[in-house]
Design a protein that fits this description.
This protein is of the alpha+beta class. The chain is 16% helix and 38% strand. It has a twelve-stranded mixed β-sheet.
Amino acid sequence: MVSIRSHLAKGHINRAPARSLRSLQRWLWIAICAAASISQASDLNGLVDRWFNVQTNLQSWSADFTQTRSLKVLTQPLVATGKVWVAAPGRFRWELGRPPQTIALRQPDELFIIYPRLKRAEKYPLANVPAGPWADALALLDASLPRDRASMDARFRLLSVTETNSILQLTLEPRSAAARKVISGILIGFRTNDFSIAVTEMKFADGSILRNDFTNAVLNQPLDPELFEPKLGKDFTVVEPLRQ
Protein backbone atom coordinates (compact mmCIF):
# COMPACT_ATOMS: atom_id res chain seq x y z
CA MET A 1 0.00 0.00 0.00
CA VAL A 2 1.27 3.46 -0.83
CA SER A 3 1.81 5.54 2.29
CA ILE A 4 -0.35 8.64 2.64
CA ARG A 5 2.89 10.40 3.40
CA SER A 6 3.27 10.87 -0.35
CA HIS A 7 -0.13 12.54 -0.48
CA LEU A 8 0.74 14.93 2.32
CA ALA A 9 4.25 15.91 1.33
CA LYS A 10 3.20 19.51 0.82
CA GLY A 11 1.38 19.73 4.15
CA HIS A 12 2.60 20.98 7.51
CA ILE A 13 3.45 17.60 9.01
CA ASN A 14 5.29 15.79 6.25
CA ARG A 15 7.94 14.55 8.69
CA ALA A 16 5.59 12.21 10.54
CA PRO A 17 6.78 8.54 10.46
CA ALA A 18 5.52 6.72 7.38
CA ARG A 19 4.32 3.70 9.36
CA SER A 20 2.23 5.90 11.64
CA LEU A 21 0.68 7.64 8.65
CA ARG A 22 -0.21 4.30 7.07
CA SER A 23 -1.87 3.26 10.33
CA LEU A 24 -4.01 6.39 10.43
CA GLN A 25 -4.92 5.97 6.77
CA ARG A 26 -6.31 2.53 7.58
CA TRP A 27 -8.57 3.93 10.29
CA LEU A 28 -9.83 7.08 8.57
CA TRP A 29 -12.89 5.13 7.42
CA ILE A 30 -14.01 4.30 10.98
CA ALA A 31 -16.24 7.22 11.74
CA ILE A 32 -17.80 7.07 8.30
CA CYS A 33 -19.37 3.74 9.24
CA ALA A 34 -21.97 5.62 11.24
CA ALA A 35 -22.55 8.53 8.88
CA ALA A 36 -22.85 9.77 5.32
CA SER A 37 -23.58 12.89 3.32
CA ILE A 38 -27.30 12.90 2.58
CA SER A 39 -28.45 15.02 -0.33
CA GLN A 40 -31.25 14.71 -2.87
CA ALA A 41 -32.08 11.20 -4.14
CA SER A 42 -35.22 11.06 -6.23
CA ASP A 43 -36.68 7.54 -5.94
CA LEU A 44 -35.16 6.59 -2.60
CA ASN A 45 -35.17 9.97 -0.88
CA GLY A 46 -37.85 8.81 1.56
CA LEU A 47 -35.71 5.90 2.73
CA VAL A 48 -32.70 8.19 3.02
CA ASP A 49 -34.71 10.62 5.14
CA ARG A 50 -35.86 7.79 7.41
CA TRP A 51 -32.26 6.62 7.77
CA PHE A 52 -31.17 10.13 8.66
CA ASN A 53 -33.90 10.38 11.33
CA VAL A 54 -32.67 7.13 12.88
CA GLN A 55 -29.08 8.40 12.91
CA THR A 56 -29.96 11.65 14.66
CA ASN A 57 -31.61 9.63 17.46
CA LEU A 58 -28.80 7.09 17.68
CA GLN A 59 -26.99 7.15 21.02
CA SER A 60 -24.95 3.95 20.72
CA TRP A 61 -24.22 1.17 18.28
CA SER A 62 -22.18 -2.03 18.41
CA ALA A 63 -21.60 -4.89 15.99
CA ASP A 64 -19.30 -7.69 14.90
CA PHE A 65 -17.54 -7.19 11.58
CA THR A 66 -15.46 -8.95 8.96
CA GLN A 67 -12.84 -6.72 7.37
CA THR A 68 -11.48 -7.39 3.88
CA ARG A 69 -8.48 -5.48 2.57
CA SER A 70 -7.68 -5.73 -1.13
CA LEU A 71 -4.23 -4.56 -2.17
CA LYS A 72 -2.82 -4.39 -5.68
CA VAL A 73 0.35 -6.16 -4.57
CA LEU A 74 -1.55 -9.20 -3.24
CA THR A 75 -3.38 -11.85 -5.27
CA GLN A 76 -5.67 -12.68 -2.33
CA PRO A 77 -7.32 -10.16 0.02
CA LEU A 78 -6.52 -9.99 3.73
CA VAL A 79 -9.48 -10.98 5.91
CA ALA A 80 -9.87 -10.38 9.67
CA THR A 81 -12.73 -10.17 12.16
CA GLY A 82 -13.40 -7.80 15.01
CA LYS A 83 -15.83 -5.79 17.11
CA VAL A 84 -16.93 -2.14 17.06
CA TRP A 85 -18.65 0.10 19.59
CA VAL A 86 -19.83 3.65 18.79
CA ALA A 87 -21.29 6.15 21.26
CA ALA A 88 -22.40 9.76 20.98
CA PRO A 89 -20.87 12.23 21.10
CA GLY A 90 -17.69 11.43 19.18
CA ARG A 91 -16.55 8.17 20.79
CA PHE A 92 -15.79 4.81 19.23
CA ARG A 93 -13.72 1.70 19.78
CA TRP A 94 -12.69 -0.73 17.03
CA GLU A 95 -10.90 -3.98 17.84
CA LEU A 96 -9.39 -5.78 14.85
CA GLY A 97 -8.47 -9.41 15.45
CA ARG A 98 -9.38 -11.81 18.24
CA PRO A 99 -7.57 -11.28 20.52
CA PRO A 100 -7.19 -7.67 19.30
CA GLN A 101 -4.07 -6.94 17.28
CA THR A 102 -5.05 -3.32 16.66
CA ILE A 103 -7.41 -1.04 18.59
CA ALA A 104 -8.64 2.32 17.27
CA LEU A 105 -10.03 4.43 20.08
CA ARG A 106 -11.61 7.83 19.55
CA GLN A 107 -12.34 10.36 22.26
CA PRO A 108 -13.80 13.82 21.53
CA ASP A 109 -10.38 15.45 21.09
CA GLU A 110 -7.98 12.55 20.48
CA LEU A 111 -7.54 9.39 18.44
CA PHE A 112 -5.46 6.48 19.72
CA ILE A 113 -4.21 3.60 17.59
CA ILE A 114 -3.05 0.88 19.95
CA TYR A 115 -0.98 -2.22 19.18
CA PRO A 116 -1.32 -4.48 22.25
CA ARG A 117 1.24 -7.06 21.13
CA LEU A 118 3.86 -4.41 20.41
CA LYS A 119 3.08 -2.46 23.59
CA ARG A 120 2.85 0.64 21.47
CA ALA A 121 0.25 3.38 21.00
CA GLU A 122 0.00 6.33 18.63
CA LYS A 123 -1.85 9.45 19.74
CA TYR A 124 -3.36 11.95 17.31
CA PRO A 125 -5.00 15.25 18.28
CA LEU A 126 -8.32 16.00 16.59
CA ALA A 127 -8.30 19.71 17.38
CA ASN A 128 -6.05 22.59 16.34
CA VAL A 129 -4.51 20.67 13.43
CA PRO A 130 -2.80 23.09 11.00
CA ALA A 131 -4.75 23.71 7.80
CA GLY A 132 -3.81 21.48 4.91
CA PRO A 133 -4.29 17.96 3.55
CA TRP A 134 -3.84 16.34 6.96
CA ALA A 135 -6.56 18.50 8.50
CA ASP A 136 -8.89 17.59 5.62
CA ALA A 137 -8.25 13.89 6.14
CA LEU A 138 -8.77 14.06 9.90
CA ALA A 139 -12.02 15.95 9.34
CA LEU A 140 -13.49 12.71 7.99
CA LEU A 141 -13.39 11.34 11.52
CA ASP A 142 -15.92 13.94 12.63
CA ALA A 143 -18.56 12.34 10.43
CA SER A 144 -19.70 9.86 13.12
CA LEU A 145 -23.29 10.06 14.37
CA PRO A 146 -24.49 12.96 12.18
CA ARG A 147 -26.27 15.84 13.83
CA ASP A 148 -27.87 17.40 10.75
CA ARG A 149 -27.95 17.05 6.98
CA ALA A 150 -26.19 20.32 6.29
CA SER A 151 -23.05 19.39 8.24
CA MET A 152 -22.80 16.10 6.37
CA ASP A 153 -23.33 17.72 2.98
CA ALA A 154 -20.50 20.09 3.84
CA ARG A 155 -18.01 17.19 3.83
CA PHE A 156 -19.37 14.66 1.34
CA ARG A 157 -20.99 14.59 -2.08
CA LEU A 158 -23.65 11.92 -2.63
CA LEU A 159 -23.12 10.35 -6.04
CA SER A 160 -25.85 7.70 -6.05
CA VAL A 161 -28.41 5.85 -3.95
CA THR A 162 -29.47 2.28 -4.78
CA GLU A 163 -31.37 -0.51 -3.05
CA THR A 164 -30.38 -4.17 -3.45
CA ASN A 165 -31.70 -7.07 -1.35
CA SER A 166 -33.10 -4.70 1.28
CA ILE A 167 -29.76 -2.91 1.58
CA LEU A 168 -29.75 0.84 0.89
CA GLN A 169 -26.38 1.78 -0.59
CA LEU A 170 -24.96 5.29 -0.66
CA THR A 171 -22.01 6.06 -2.90
CA LEU A 172 -20.05 9.12 -1.76
CA GLU A 173 -16.90 11.09 -2.28
CA PRO A 174 -15.21 13.68 -0.05
CA ARG A 175 -15.79 17.24 -1.18
CA SER A 176 -12.27 18.25 -0.22
CA ALA A 177 -9.80 17.80 -3.07
CA ALA A 178 -7.04 17.16 -0.53
CA ALA A 179 -9.08 14.41 1.16
CA ARG A 180 -9.77 12.81 -2.24
CA LYS A 181 -6.01 12.37 -2.64
CA VAL A 182 -6.28 9.86 0.21
CA ILE A 183 -9.84 8.46 -0.19
CA SER A 184 -11.32 8.41 -3.68
CA GLY A 185 -14.71 6.87 -2.92
CA ILE A 186 -16.96 5.55 -0.15
CA LEU A 187 -19.84 3.11 -0.19
CA ILE A 188 -22.14 2.68 2.83
CA GLY A 189 -24.97 0.17 2.99
CA PHE A 190 -27.83 0.17 5.52
CA ARG A 191 -30.53 -2.43 6.15
CA THR A 192 -33.89 -0.92 5.28
CA ASN A 193 -35.76 -2.79 8.06
CA ASP A 194 -33.90 -1.23 10.98
CA PHE A 195 -31.36 1.09 9.24
CA SER A 196 -28.43 -0.59 10.97
CA ILE A 197 -25.13 -0.61 9.09
CA ALA A 198 -24.65 -3.62 6.81
CA VAL A 199 -21.49 -2.77 4.88
CA THR A 200 -18.93 -0.03 4.35
CA GLU A 201 -16.31 0.14 1.65
CA MET A 202 -13.60 2.71 1.04
CA LYS A 203 -11.47 3.05 -2.07
CA PHE A 204 -8.11 4.68 -1.56
CA ALA A 205 -6.22 6.72 -4.09
CA ASP A 206 -3.51 4.03 -4.34
CA GLY A 207 -6.11 1.53 -5.61
CA SER A 208 -6.52 -0.43 -2.37
CA ILE A 209 -10.00 -1.21 -1.02
CA LEU A 210 -11.11 -1.63 2.58
CA ARG A 211 -14.49 -3.31 3.16
CA ASN A 212 -16.36 -4.10 6.37
CA ASP A 213 -19.40 -6.38 6.60
CA PHE A 214 -21.37 -6.02 9.86
CA THR A 215 -23.48 -8.54 11.76
CA ASN A 216 -25.22 -8.75 15.16
CA ALA A 217 -25.81 -5.00 15.35
CA VAL A 218 -27.22 -3.65 18.63
CA LEU A 219 -28.66 -0.12 18.79
CA ASN A 220 -29.06 2.23 21.76
CA GLN A 221 -27.93 -0.14 24.47
CA PRO A 222 -25.91 1.30 27.40
CA LEU A 223 -22.15 1.06 26.86
CA ASP A 224 -19.57 1.04 29.63
CA PRO A 225 -17.69 4.39 29.47
CA GLU A 226 -14.45 2.54 30.21
CA LEU A 227 -14.65 0.99 26.73
CA PHE A 228 -13.48 4.34 25.36
CA GLU A 229 -10.54 4.84 27.75
CA PRO A 230 -7.02 3.92 26.51
CA LYS A 231 -5.87 2.11 29.69
CA LEU A 232 -2.26 1.80 28.59
CA GLY A 233 0.14 -0.04 30.86
CA LYS A 234 3.40 1.45 32.09
CA ASP A 235 5.26 -0.79 29.65
CA PHE A 236 3.58 0.87 26.63
CA THR A 237 5.43 3.33 24.42
CA VAL A 238 3.19 6.25 23.42
CA VAL A 239 4.21 8.39 20.45
CA GLU A 240 2.60 11.47 18.91
CA PRO A 241 3.49 11.39 15.18
CA LEU A 242 2.08 14.86 14.48
CA ARG A 243 4.57 16.38 16.91
CA GLN A 244 7.56 14.73 15.26
